[in-house]
Amino acid sequence: MLNISSDFDHGNIDCLDVSDPANIRLAIKKDGLAAFYQWFYFRVDGAAGQPLAMVIENASGASYVDGWNNYRAAASYDGEDWFRVDTTYDGKALTIRHTPDKDEIFYAYFAAYPTTRYRAFVEQMKSLSLLQHEVVGETLDGQTIDYFRAGDGPKQFWVIARQHPGETMGSWWMEGFLPMLADENDAAARRLRENATVHVVPCMNLDGARRGHLRTNAAGQDLNRAWRYASMEKSPEVYLVRERMRASGVDFFLDVHGDEAIPNNFLDQTEGAPSWNDEMAAAFERFSSLLLKKSRDFQTRDGYPQDKPGEANLDIANNYVADVWGCLSMTLEMPFKDANVNPDPVRGWSPERCRNFAREHLEVMAEIVR
Questions:
Q1: Which of 175, 237, 333, 360 is catalytic?
Q2: Ranges assigned E (strand) in the chain
Q3: I need a labelling partner for 163 at 20 to 30 A (CA). Which of 23, 75, 201, 267 fits?
Q4: Dist CA 163 CA 160 (whole Å)
Q5: Mean pLDDT across the chain, nearest whole number?
Q6: 83-84, strands of its sheet edge to edge
Q7: CATH class of segment(s) 3-108
Q8: Domain 115-368 has CATH 1.10.760.10
């Protein structure tokens, strides 16, 4: 018997009607206390060999409608190997068509990264001798916020990910970054640890991740719009991490995200921050140029429009950090779709490509810290 469910860690879908496999009617749930929605993640049971047409009827009201253009949904039988399936958007509904080979299969907006996988990853990282682990506090749902530190150099490098819980590429990126950072035999990681103290928060928004949200935490707060006025009542995740940053200082900041609409990887700088100057511009240009030489997956043509001088939104993490510490502060955006500069017709932008991209970032960080 065909069944669709999402009542599990990180899941999100309303199944409206499953009686006709050729017209399964679905809707994405909103972010609890907020109106955002676009993340979906659900399981289909009992459909092996059966052609499915799964119609997300409220797609036209999603938070980033341009994200559906030329988009293909992700699918996996085991939560590890994710591939893309036929997906169309007609201006109203998003339709996913696929014939599963097995009775159990998962479909998601991007390769899913539940908090259960995150906790297993954290335990692995805690066992590495070159990583120091601490809990900086708890989320509103009582989940522990993990923080790792490596190296003892004078420069203070901060890297965070997944302020927006539906942007799971940030967690897959961390699976490449943290193990390499703790690799005793890697020359780039060793150089970075010698010249910098690297502070890492691998997942900022655990409550949103577990609840199946696209963008917000348990209080309905977009964490990447909370940095200037963070509070323990609404955004403890930002408040606690921000206090740690105040204690250490910041010489470099990278905030890892995903973008729904732009089909490429890019870095967003902080030219609109009041403290922006020629030195910060040169630092960004150097980092970007080095990454462009190193990575086939990076490009500098597509990205966000530049803010006008002094008009940056200081509630956003990279702008806030740039203004307070006057340092190189960037947001990395990875695609939910495929990366046009180096496409993969089977998997699109994928977990393995996220991990490799993270390793390339670490190598560039090791270059600029010298």
A1: 333
A2: 3-5, 14-17, 24-27, 41-45, 52-56, 74-76, 83-84, 86-89, 94-98, 104-108, 132-138, 144-150, 155-161, 196-201, 252-259, 266-268, 328-335
A3: 75
A4: 8
A5: 98
A6: 3-5, 41-45, 104-108, 74-76, 83-84
A7: mainly beta
A8: no
Question: Catalytic site residue 333?
Answer: yes
Residue type, 158: W
Distance CA 359, CA 118 (A): 19
Closest by alpha carbon to 131, among 145, 149, 154, 158? 149
Q: At CA 349, angle to CA 296 and CA 356, rounded to 5?
A: 55
Residue 290 has, within 13 A of its CA and on its CB side, a CA count of 16
Task: Name the residue ranges covered by the structural domains of the chain.
Answer: 3-108, 115-368
State residue 99's pLDDT score: 98
* Model confidence pLDDT, tens digit, residues 163-205: 999 999 999 999 999 999 999 999 999 999 999 999 999 999 9
Each residue of 91-139: pLDDT tens digit? 999 999 999 999 999 999 999 999 999 999 999 999 999 999 999 999 9
